[in-house]
Amino acid sequence: MTEMKLLVVGANGGLGRQVVTHSLEHGHQVTALVRRGAGQVETPGLRMVEGAVGDDLAAVRRAVDGQDAIVSALGNPLWLKARTGSAVMARATANLVAAMHLHQVRRIAMPLAWGSGASRQHTAWPLKVLTRLLIRRDYQDFDTAEAILAASGLDFTIAYFGSLTDQPASRAWSAHPDVKPPRPWRSAAPTWPSAWWTPSNPPAPPPTASRSAARRKDDAPMNLTGKTIVLTGASSGLGAEAARLLSAQGAILHLVGRDEKRTKAIGEEVHAPTYTADFTSLSQTRSLAAQLADAVPDIDVLALNAGGVMPPRLTDDGIDANFQANALAPWLLMTQLAGKLGTGRVLLTNSRSHDNAVLSPHNLAAALAGEPRVSGHRTYARAKLAAGVLLREFHRRNPGVDVGDFHPGIMASDFGRYMGRTGSLLKTAARPFIGTPRQGAERLVELATRQQALAGAYFVHARRAKGSAQLQSQELGTALWEAANRATASVSNSAE
Ligand SMILES: NC(=O)c1ccc[n+]([C@@H]2O[C@H](COP(=O)([O-])OP(=O)(O)OC[C@H]3O[C@@H](n4cnc5c(N)ncnc54)[C@H](OP(=O)(O)O)[C@@H]3O)[C@@H](O)[C@H]2O)c1
Q1: How many angstroms separate the Cα of 147 from the Cα of each of 71, 244, 295?
Q2: Cα separation, 488 vs 315, whole angstroms
Q3: Is residue 302 within 8 Å of residue 346, measured between CB atoms?
Q4: Band of the pLDDT at 78, cuts 50, 70, 90?
Q5: 84 CA to middle of ligand 1, Å?
Q6: Of 92, 160, 293, 401, which one has the fewest beta carbons inside 10 Å?
Q7: Are 287 and 494 in contact (CB under 8 A)?
Q8: Atom of ligand 1 nearest to the CA of 259
Q9: For residue 384, which atom of ligand 1 is closest to its CA?
Q10: What mean pLDDT comes out for the span 442-471?
Q11: How far is residue 150's CA from residue 244's CA, in Å, rounded to a whole number?
């Protein structure tokens, strides 16, 4: 075996110690990234670098520099067991991937728990329920770590372990024959894992055909290194997951949220500048557009993802809150940033519910004022329809900019927050049966980054779909554009 330079992450843990010992025994040079290195006995062939892999990108970069491969032996302090400690896998993986791109290190091996990511569909239902309810935090973290790797374009190997023991090593092992590589469409030339481990099945050959091979060439994702992406609604749900995925692919991100603390937290995690604005305020939206215009030279993708169902009410601007946050604010941002978009792309997170709504071009003032009075869900649907119509009208006026919108799926995000306790209860009960924010994020990333133009299409998940016929109505587009102009004309930037 060729001697290699290996970085072992999580080297102080049970698995990590074994990896270090075996690697040294096989003559490899090992760097161990550990939180506390003081007091360690000096060992030939072993170098210690101190730093927290999830929080200290500078230390991660130092440790990754010059390695041939990375072996992660990280694990979360499982919430079910300890109920303490933060979930670290996704943050750690994002830092490792960023440092690997920087120092051109290609290979990484990582253990994840059986039942997470690509192994999930092969697990028994009691484990599925358990991992969705009791240890959801950890499994979401594992899922995100997997997605970051799958999106990284690196040569990665993931082993989905069952339970590990302290018994002496056995020579017998087995792997599940059916686990497929995670989300292969993301990786340009992935090296698939050679073994997918579970306790009871025979070893499988590595999968040979991937969906990426089947995808058309022009469907392939663009290289995001150096591309600027402005993402709204990045503080929660699918937006936060999308920020992680896009960051792992090297995009230059500008993240927008409403809640300052949550937005900053995700910005720190992916090392991106953040901005906050409440989209139910026209002056805050204008102010945000001005800040972005100052900060960003050109925008390759504007992902208008913020939104959600709000209780029916009029904002301080006298506009229905659902209409303002879901339709007017994205429109205002898009028009104010048109000069930065050049030949870029605008992708709107729409909702399937828009298909049940109807707008009359002759009565838009009423829709903006929340008339006729209906439930929050119905005004939301109306607003999402309006957002899709305005998007296409924007394209008619800015034909160089590619546009499209999509329904991300029904996801257990923070979407139903306005329903308070009822919303939380419904979310918990429905969680095992509906999608995850990560799945929605993967759809957003796929559409935002694909090379083929979206060309004004509407997608359900990432497939072209019909949507409301009104989406394409030019008469409605012109009328809505004028109504939006009228509604926003008198309100200036809150910073002015
Ligand atoms: N979840 C679903 O089942 C589902 C289905 C169809 C479509 N969608 C759409 O998917 C998108 C993302 O939603 P999600 O499921 O990820 O929900 P989420 O977890 O509630 O995230 C919504 C995001 O939008 C931001 N946002 C909400 N209202 C805002 C306002 N007034 N001003 C500024 N930002 C605001 C939130 O900011 P803060 O967290 O900082 O408040 C958050 O970042 C939305 O456009 C939603 O309409 C969701």
Answers
A1: 17, 9, 29
A2: 13
A3: yes
A4: low
A5: 28
A6: 293
A7: yes
A8: 40
A9: 47
A10: 93
A11: 12
Q: Is the CB of 257 under 6 A from ligand 1?
A: yes
279 CB less than 6 Å from ligand 1? Answer: yes
Residue nearest to atom 6 of ligand 1 (CA): 351
pLDDT for the residue numbered 86: 62
How would you class 166 by CB atoms within 10 Å of its CB: exposed for 0-12, middle for 13-18, buried for 19 or more? exposed
CA–centroid distance, residue 30 to ligand 1 (Å): 44
Q: How far is the CA of 323 from the centre of ligand 1 (A)?
A: 14
160 pairs with which residues across the strands?
112
Distance CA 276, CA 418 (A): 19
Check if 5-214 and 219-487 are the same fold.
yes
- pLDDT confidence of residue 38: 63
> Residue 212: in which H helix or E strand, if any?
helix 211-214
CATH number of 219-487: 3.40.50.720
Q: Distance (Å, rounded) from C-alpha 406 to C-alpha 113? A: 32
Query: Which residues, other chains included, contact 257 with Cβ-Cβ below 8 Å and sequence gap of 6+?
Result: 232, 233, 234, 235, 236, 239, 263, 266, 274, 275, 276, 306
Give the ligand 1 atom nearest the CA of 235.
43
Bridge partner list, 302: 230, 346
In the predicted structure, residue 203 carries a pLDDT above the cut 70: no
Domain 5-214 CATH assignment equals 3.40.309.10: no
CB 97 within 8 A of CB 152: yes
132 neighbors 432 (Cβ within 8 angstroms)? yes
Q: Tokens 């670098």: give the residue.
A: 49
Q: Are 214 and 118 in contact (CB under 8 A)?
A: no
Kind and range of the H or E run holding 229: strand 228-232
CA of 237 to the centre of ligand 1 (A): 7
Which residue's alpha carbon is nearest to atom 27 within ligand 1? 307
Q: Where are the domains of the chain?
A: 5-214, 219-487
What is the C-alpha to C-alpha distance for residues 47 and 405, in angstroms, rounded to an integer? Answer: 50
Please identify, by atom number, the ligand 1 atom nearest to the C-alpha of residue 307: 45
Query: What are 307's two structure tokens?
Result: 């939104």
**Per-residue pLDDT at 456:** 95
Q: Which of 415, 427, 458 gets mutated to test ligand 1 (max ligand atoms within 8 A of its CB)?
A: 415
Highest mean pLDDT among 135-139, 188-192, 219-223: 135-139
The model's pTM: 0.67
Q: Is the CB of 238 under 6 A from ligand 1?
A: yes
